[in-house]
Design brief:
Order of helices and strands: HHHHHEEEHHEHHEEHEEE
Helix content: 40-55%
Radius of gyration: 20 Å
Structural class: mainly alpha
Number of strands: 9
Shape: globular
Length: 308
């Protein structure tokens, strides 16, 4: 909410929204217990996401405060580090929303912005753990969802349509791939067509239902919000339409967990500089336009908006 209020202030010049954003950030800071907020300890509902939102809302100190606990809670692995992302959950997740990559993105972005080398080094260690899990070999990149691996219960497309955890989120990634790599829009078209087919359309407009196997009935009532409702789905369908018309792929307001799409660097290679189990000793070598990068990622260098 603080991020949205700050965006309203910045984009529309509404000073009262900026004042409300500051009050919201103060409330968030007051509820920090010294390590975390809720049980979640990742990007979607925990410290990493709070850090990214706080920084985009203008409170870098709160962002650093939110990320500092990751230094003490990192678990060393053969490839780098990872984290327990929910108290008492034995699985370790590797993806963006609930896993290592989301934490890595926040550590890299905020560490770079704040000049905190300890945070950026930890980001590199987390990224190295994910890279070490690649199962596709030199011709691709494929990492399991989690360890132990998550098992899908139902075949086909994602059970949900939403931007947070469903087809619209995958559509955002497919459109990013086209904007960055020129991959074409064939997969994005399949996703957009699936969303169109699953919409309920009547005199009241268009809307989407989602599926939750733990609820009864399992088909949920349509929602209007960004994460699982119309706002997020429409946002991605409009972007897809702009790309089909060869127009600007950017958003009016980029969300903190989704870096703006840009033409990518050639390759990023992670390698230990001193010992496999030293979580703060990882280096990065990258090339952009044939020249080595400076050695640390910028705020938009370590993540992609995706469904999980």
């Amino acid at each position: 909410m603080a991020f949205v209020l700050r965006a309203v202030c910045d984009v529309l010049g509404e000073d009262r929204a900026g004042q409300a954003a500051a009050r919201a950030l103060d409330l968030v800071r007051s509820r920090f217990d010294g390590e975390r907020w809720p049980d979640q300890f990742e990007l979607l509902g925990g410290n990493a996401g709070i850090a990214l939102g706080a920084a985009r809302a203008g409170d870098l100190d709160l962002a650093v405060l939110a990320l500092t606990p990751y230094l003490a809670t990192a678990e060393a692995t053969a490839g780098g580090v990872h984290w327990e992302v929910r108290a008492g959950t034995p699985a370790r997740f590797h993806h963006l929303s609930h896993g290592t990559l989301g934490i890595v993105y926040a550590l890299a972005a905020i560490g770079h912005a704040a000049g905190r080398r300890d945070l950026t080094d930890l980001a590199l260690a987390g990224a190295a753990d994910v890279v070490s899990r690649d199962e596709a070999g030199p011709d691709g990149f494929l990492v399991p969802h989690s360890d132990p691996q998550h098992k899908r219960l139902r075949p086909g497309f994602w059970d949900n349509n939403g931007r947070c955890c469903g087809t619209a989120g995958v559509l955002a990634l497919a459109c990013d791939r086209h904007a960055e790599e020129g991959d074409g829009l064939s997969f994005a078209g399949v996703l957009a067509s699936d969303l169109a087919a699953r919409a309920t359309v009547d005199n009241d407009g268009a809307r989407w239902s989602n599926y939750e196997h733990r609820a009864s009935p399992r088909t949920l009532a349509p929602r209007t919000g960004w994460a699982m409702g119309n706002a997020g789905i429409i946002r991605e369908l409009l972007r897809y339409a702009r790309l089909c018309d060869q127009r600007d792929p950017s958003y009016a307001v980029a969300w903190p967990d989704h870096p703006p799409a840009a033409r990518s660097v050639n390759v990023v290679h992670f390698a230990p500089s001193a010992g496999q189990n030293a979580p703060r000793s990882w280096g990065i070598a990258a090339t952009a336009g044939g020249r080595p990068c400076a050695g640390r990622p910028g705020p938009g260098g370590a993540g992609r908006g995706g469904p999980r």
